[in-house]
């Protein structure tokens, strides 16, 4: 049965754009030489598209008061990798979303030298860059955060036109890989070797959320609540957009990772715990967590252990099923009591 949306659960704005029109009328503005190489591989002269993007921006939602025991189960998986954007079978009743670890100003740094998670995703999906230019030109707010409130952005139907291998050791002469600032320093031949065109393109749904930045010391209750509220808003918006216009609700899958733990200096353990809680609150069917490497996997497992033993012993394993109603403020107070601290920016 299709879920009825209340006013507070409807987007601030929703617009649909033809990708071919976007790329022609609002071409990406690429400034860095290596980004230009990637763009030329992804969208060579004469490229066309019949695809369409659905852009929506959502207002912040208030958290529920309790975790309900009768809500659907959220399954938690992890992969020791970065996003691979595996295509969803056409006949599957599944809608998948990949996080964009966003700046408050949507896709703002795509044309420059940096190749962090946000910029990597846009480079592989060049229509997102054209969408940024169109929003700015048309006076549509391209913000994932406004006046201290989260306003997550969803983009359905983005074409992935290339894959860039930034992993350590993937390209000879670059043992640390091409991620982050390493990309800007790479030789042209290395960038070309690392970039593979995808033809025909695959389709990705994007959820852009800005994590808090610039904190220090231990996380306070208000910071923790704001992080959960941001993720809950974004995840709920993804679920609502997934079921829009469908007679039967599909399985909704969120692909995420250490959101806000790079340039923003977030704590990996905390951000894992809070995203799992938000996914459960938002009634997401499955959360796929990308841990990058062994160290990341160890952090993820530690976070899940803390969640199950210290924060919510009422849940059942990696299937986040609550045995009884639990006060959300009480849960967040337990998280605060962990005394987890902000890290520092990784410079990427």
From TrEMBL:
Pfam family, one: PARG_cat_C
GO molecular function term, any single one: poly(ADP-ribose) glycohydrolase activity
Gene Ontology CC: cytoplasm
Domain PARG catalytic Macro residue range list: 200-295
Annotated GO biological process: ATP generation from poly-ADP-D-ribose; carbohydrate metabolic process; nucleotide-sugar metabolic process; regulation of DNA repair
Taxonomic superkingdom: Bacteria
PANTHER family according to UniProt: POLY ADP-RIBOSE GLYCOHYDROLASE, POLY(ADP-RIBOSE) GLYCOHYDROLASE
Protein name: PARG catalytic Macro domain-containing protein
Organism: Candidatus Saccharicenans subterraneus
Lineage: Bacteria, Candidatus Aminicenantota, Candidatus Aminicenantia, Candidatus Aminicenantales, Candidatus Saccharicenantaceae
């Amino acid at each position: 049965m299709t879920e009825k949306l209340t006013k507070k659960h409807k987007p601030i704005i929703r617009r649909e754009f033809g990708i071919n029109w976007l790329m022609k009328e609002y071409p990406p503005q690429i400034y860095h030489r290596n980004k230009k190489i990637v763009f030329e591989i992804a969208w060579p002269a004469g490229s066309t598209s019949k695809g369409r993007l659905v852009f929506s921006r959502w207002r912040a939602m208030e958290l529920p008061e309790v975790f309900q025991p009768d809500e659907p189960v959220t399954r938690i998986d992890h992969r020791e990798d970065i996003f691979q954007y595996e295509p969803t079978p056409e006949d599957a009743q599944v809608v998948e979303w990949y996080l964009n670890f966003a700046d408050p100003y949507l896709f703002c740094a795509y044309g420059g030298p940096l190749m962090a998670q946000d910029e990597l995703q846009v480079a592989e999906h060049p229509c997102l860059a054209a969408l940024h230019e169109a929003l700015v030109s048309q006076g549509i707010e391209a913000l994932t955060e406004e006046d201290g409130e989260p306003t997550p952005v969803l983009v359905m139907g983005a074409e992935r036109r290339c894959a860039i291998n930034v992993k350590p050791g993937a390209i000879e002469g670059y043992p640390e890989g091409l991620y982050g600032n390493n990309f800007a320093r790479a030789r042209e031949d290395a960038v070309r070797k690392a970039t593979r065109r995808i033809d025909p393109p695959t389709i990705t749904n994007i959820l852009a959320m800005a994590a808090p930045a610039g904190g220090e010391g231990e996380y306070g209750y208000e910071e923790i609540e704001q992080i959960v509220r941001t993720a809950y808003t974004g995840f709920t918006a993804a679920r609502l957009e997934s079921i829009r216009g469908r007679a039967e609700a599909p399985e909704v899958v969120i692909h995420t990772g250490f959101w806000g733990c790079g340039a923003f200096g977030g704590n990996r353990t905390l951000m894992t715990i809070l995203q799992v809680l938000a996914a459960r609150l938002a009634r997401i069917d499955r959360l796929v967590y990308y841990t990058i490497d062994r160290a990341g996997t160890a952090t993820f497992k530690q976070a899940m252990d803390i969640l199950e033993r210290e924060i919510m012993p009422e849940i059942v394993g990696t299937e986040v099923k609550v045995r009884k109603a639990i006060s959300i403020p009480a849960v967040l107070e337990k998280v605060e009591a962990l005394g987890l601290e902000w890290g520092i920016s990784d410079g990427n």
